[in-house]
Amino acid sequence: MPTRLYSTEALLRAMAPIDIVIDSFHSAQCNNAVENETQPPLKSPWSEKSQGRFASLIVSIAKTNNKTKYNNHSHDDTHDNNTDDWSTISFLPSHRYVHKLIQRYTSRLQHEGEGAELENDRLASLVCYFSISSKKMSTSTSGVFHSSVPDPLASCIVSFHVPIIAPIDDRKKNKFARQIEPFRDDDDNGDDDLLKIRVYPHHNDVGVAKVWEAGACLAEYILGHPEVVRGRKIVELGAGVGLTGLVAAAAAAAASSSASSSSNFSGERWKDGDNVVGGGDLFVHMTDYTEACLENMACNVELNEGWLRRRGVDPVNVTVGALEWSEYARNENIMVQCHTAESNPVYGSHGANSIHALSKADVILAADVVYDVQCIPDLVSTVCKFLSSPLKSTEGNLRGEEKIAIFATTYRNQKTFGLFEEELETNGIICDYLSMDGLPLVFPCYFRQPRSDVRLCTMKLKI
Q: Among residues 225, 218, 247, 250, which one has the least CA distance to residue 369?
């Protein structure tokens, strides 16, 4: 992955592999590419000044967490960045991750520093704090450390600065206008304007463990081509942590903002029990199957309510629900059965939500859902059933658009991917692969597999 395209802070926020973060930091220090351009380059990446800058980088992430409502510590904005009382703050990346990062940095300092020693007071205090904390893990009641073994129920937050999308009509007026603004770490809203995603790095449910490569790639495609979601009602299959759906909502609102105001994401809604859900001229409904995924996605929608509102999206129109592909694909009467939660004992309220959303949607998004050969027939049948039903979007009909599915699949197993393509052909679905040339690199998530391993395609029914 070309990490030079990301700032060290962006890599740290994304919990990138530790050596990649350290290498990026050193490159910035030595090549005058430091995030604060007023700082001169340093001759040695292990000098006392460099150590201080590394500690300050970590402190900046700690400061961010003090501003989030999910922080368990004080929200006192008078907190001094130079404090050595690390017990009063927490980090958006997990404490375990930051601890390992500092351990690795000091280890490399000793082995690569050519006689350099730990000289900076702030970094030394961080090392001391984590050393003491690790010795107390087995008896700690603070919630930071409990065991030397990773806790599968321990969550943390990865965060991203997402580029601002230019309204589509503005780009039409000026063919030289940039589609999105360049990546920036100094957004006007500062750290409060981060897209924050809660993950469970050690959980056995892969849907909550991380932002997967294909999900990041699909989100970047939507940022590069917001017109694909303009005026659309969207359902995402296998949404995982919800990053792609949140980005799609912001892109849809931005792409439509020239035509009308942010009311594009408010309007018609339907009821699920006592809760008003979905709807509007636009909506995004994110689906998955496990309770862990559904609960975590709902948390991530709530966590980003302010982020959505600043992009013209009413958070009530970004919803979450369960969807079992086999039940949806095989039951011919399920559209009728799922108009209300009470009428569907299989799905309950969450499932009724999802079927109702599918009956209104005109775009399906899906990322990293092609990995289990046993699920592929039901997945493709779900797509086929969706594409076969009439398009109900008035704006879509006026523009002469069809229902489409947009998939991003990380190429891991040739046999599995081949079976997927065979099922598409059998069901009369045309798959059109998309170029990723010129797409923005926004999410530093391509550590196990490069973005070039992801296949992007749109799907439509054969005429």
A: 218
Asked whether the beta carbons of 294 and 320 are under 8 A apart, the reply is yes
Phi, psi of 71 (to 5 degrees): -80, 135
| Angstrom distance (rounded) from CA 385 to CA 382 | 5
Q: Which of 387, 233, 212 is nearest to 319 (CA)?
A: 233
Closest CA to 79 of 60, 92, 91, 66: 66
Residue 211 half-sphere exposure toward CB, CA atoms < 13 A: 32
Please compute, for residue 395, the number of CA atoms within 13 A of its CA located in the half-sphere on the CB side. Answer: 15
Q: Which residue has the higher pLDDT, 316 or 82?
A: 316
pLDDT digits (tens, 9 = 90+) for 400-432: 568 999 999 999 988 999 999 999 999 999 999
> Would you call 119 exposed, middle or buried from its count of C-beta atoms within 10 A (0-12, 13-18, 19+)?
middle
- The total number of residues shown for the chain amounts to 463
Pairing status of strand 429-433 against strand 275-277: unpaired
* Most distant CA atoms of the chain, gap in Å: 74
φ and ψ at 272, to 5 degrees?
-125, 95
Whether 286 shows a pLDDT value over 80: the answer reads: yes
Least Cα distance to 328 among 311, 346, 349, 310 occurs for: 346
How far apart, in whole angstroms, are the C-alpha atoms of residue 294 and residue 41? 46
Pairing mode of beta strands 283-288, 318-322: parallel
pLDDT of residue 176: 34
pLDDT above 90 covers a percentage of the chain that reads 50
